[in-house]
Amino acid sequence: MEFLKKNWSNILFIILIILLLVPQTRKPIQVGLNRMISFSPSKIAEDERDTLENYNWNLVDLNGEPVNFKSSIGKVAVVNLWATWCPPCIAEMPSFQKLYDQYGDKVDFYFVSTEEAAKLQQFLNKNHYRLPVYQPLDMAPQKLQSRSLPTTIVISKKGKIAVNKKGSANWNDSGFKGLLDQLLAED
C-alpha cells in the first residue's frame, strides 16, 4: 500500500502511455485532449488579409452532385479541410455542427475531404452530423491549399481571407460568431 501512495502519479502516467499505444483507446484520448485545448480561432487583421482571386474549384457532394466553389463569390464562406482518421478534425466537428445549425442559411460551408464518399457518409451518420461534405475533383485554388489537417479558411464577401487556422478550434465560440456576424454585415 505504501508503494501505491508514493508512486500513484507514475502508475497513472504509465497507464496513460499504454492507453495511447493501443489504437482503440488512442483516438478517443486524442480527440478528448484536442477538445479540451481548443480555443476560438484568431482572425487575421484587416490590413493583413490576402484576397482570394481564384474561386474556380470543382467539388462533388456525397450524392455525386457537382458543385463549383465559384457559387460562393460575394458570400461569406467557411472551408474546412479534414479527414475521418484525424483526431483534431474529429474534435472540432461538434462545434462546427452547432455553428452550422446557427449559420448554415447565411454562410456557405464546405467540409472537404479526399476520403471515399461511403466512409464520409458513414462518419456523418454515426455522429449525427448534417454538414455539407464535399470531395475535390481538382486542385483547390492556391490560397486554399494546405498540407495540415484540419485547416479552416474563412472568406469574406469581398474575397478576403479573415481566418486561416491550422489545427482544431472551438468554432462555436462567441468571438468567432462575432467575426461571422461582422463579415455578414459588410457590403
TrEMBL record:
Q: Which domain of life is it from?
A: Bacteria
Q: From the UniProt record, which GO molecular function terms apply?
A: oxidoreductase activity
Q: Which residues form the Thioredoxin domain?
A: 46-185
InterPro entries from the UniProt entry: Redoxin (IPR013740), Thioredoxin-like_sf (IPR036249), Thioredoxin_domain (IPR013766), Thioredoxin_ResA/DsbE_sf (IPR050553)
Q: Which SUPFAM superfamilies match?
A: Thioredoxin-like (SSF52833)
List the protein's name: TlpA disulfide reductase family protein
